[in-house]
Design a protein that fits this description.
With 207 residues, this protein is of the alpha/beta class. The protein has 7 helices and 9 strands, in the order E-H-E-H-H-E-E-E-E-E-H-E-H-H-E-H. The protein has helices at residues 14-29, 50-53, 66-77, 118-123, 134-149, 153-172, 190-202, and strands at residues 2-8, 34-37, 82-84, 87-88, 93-94, 99-101, 106-110, 126-131, 181-184.
């Protein structure tokens, strides 16, 4: 089993990179690629009033249930299925429904903070950091939060100033040093993605 971790700042293009490598790996290996998003493992905030839920700092490592995520990854590596939680950014709560995940020979873990967890780091075979300029990330964050999460521009900019940007420089950007491969310009960097796929093939996953 090969475990690939893909980290980077919010809006850096991680999802695009994951879709690209997962799609090409599935085509090359004829296997199902399991993708596990860190976002599914945000801690449940249903015990808080809505005003307090909306003030939660989702860019801080304490907001993620890393204990459960690491435990689920260990279960998958042991050949056992897990029930992945689902999280709603609209209600800021963990949903009742879960996603049944079966073990796979290739698993991709994706999220802004996954390299801040030592237990997760020890389980990753390849660590990928997706990099992008602050301005580019901000534009992507604005589009995503308005379209997918029902926020307005003023809310997005306020959150970016108060939490997203400072947390990025405090917790996320420093994890770049642990990466095996850095992908500049997100999913648009085809050369970097080709290098990543080449590294995966050298580890035994050939076309």
């Amino acid at each position: 089993m090969l475990i690939i971790g893909v980290a980077g700042g919010s809006g850096s293009g991680k999802t695009t990179v994951v879709k690209e490598i997962a799609g090409r790996l599935a085509q090359q290996t004829k296997q199902k690629i399991v993708v596990i998003p860190q976002d599914s493992y945000y801690k449940d905030q249903s015990h808080l009033p809505m005003v307090e839920r909306q003030a939660v700092n989702y860019d801080h490592p304490d907001s993620v249930d890393f204990e459960l995520l690491a435990a689920h990854l260990k279960e998958l590596k042991a050949g056992r299925a897990v029930e992945q939680p689902q999280y709603s950014y609209i209600t800021c709560t963990r949903q009742r429904e879960t996603v049944h995940i079966e073990p796979s020979n290739i698993i991709i873990i994706e999220g802004i903070l996954i390299f801040t967890c030592e237990e997760l780091l020890r389980q990753l075979d390849i660590k990928v950091y997706v990099d992008a300029d602050d301005d580019e990330r901000l534009m992507r964050i604005i589009r995503r939060d308005i379209v997918e999460r029902g926020k307005d521009v003023e809310w997005v900019l306020d959150r970016y100033k108060k939490t997203v940007k400072p947390m990025y420089h405090q917790f996320i950007e420093p994890t770049k040093r642990v990466a095996d491969i850095i992908v500049p310009q997100g999913g648009h960097n085809k050369v970097a993605i080709d290098v990543l796929l080449c590294a995966i093939r050298k580890m035994g996953y050939k076309e």
